[in-house]
Amino acid sequence: MTSAKVLYVVVCGAGAASDLEAFVRLAQGAGWHVRVIATPMGAKFLDLDRLAASTGGPVRTDFRQPHETSNGLPPADAIVVAPATFNTINKWALGITDTVAVGMLCEHLGMGVPILAVPQVKAELATHVAFGRNLDALRSMGARILFDPAAPPHARMPSWQDILTELNGILDG
């Protein structure tokens, strides 16, 4: 096992997920040991085998089975949720752990692991009252949110480099 810090990347089913490998490479280049956890819809945007090969471990998409004694993941030093969907943000804030991805987010938020969430949602969903309240709820629980609902649609999701820079800023205090 590497001595690098461990970064979990939780990926949801939104357009930016199809380019997740670029973020994985950036994070690895910055010294992170990356492991990927995907929501069921997020997994549909990914080449699971290629990501497993590049990260050294399978993409986690489901809860472990009763006979499995470990989830197979090294402990996380930080988590990036990108792209984070409307659905995942709302379920996470409410503690609805019906996917392994949201379950892990809830657990790690409770453990105090630094988490950066980067939503990618349509303008119509970004203005939904529940979404705004749930972003505020997550912030109040300690999650960092990188999101500008007023940004034009093509710029609403920051670049992978901007996400990594924000994560480093969080960790540097």
From TrEMBL:
Q: Which residues form the Flavoprotein domain?
A: 7-164
Pfam hit, one = Flavoprotein
> Which InterPro entries does the entry mention?
Flavin_trans-like, Flavoprotein
Gene Ontology terms, MF aspect? catalytic activity
| Name this protein carries in UniProt | Phosphopantothenoylcysteine synthetase/decarboxylase
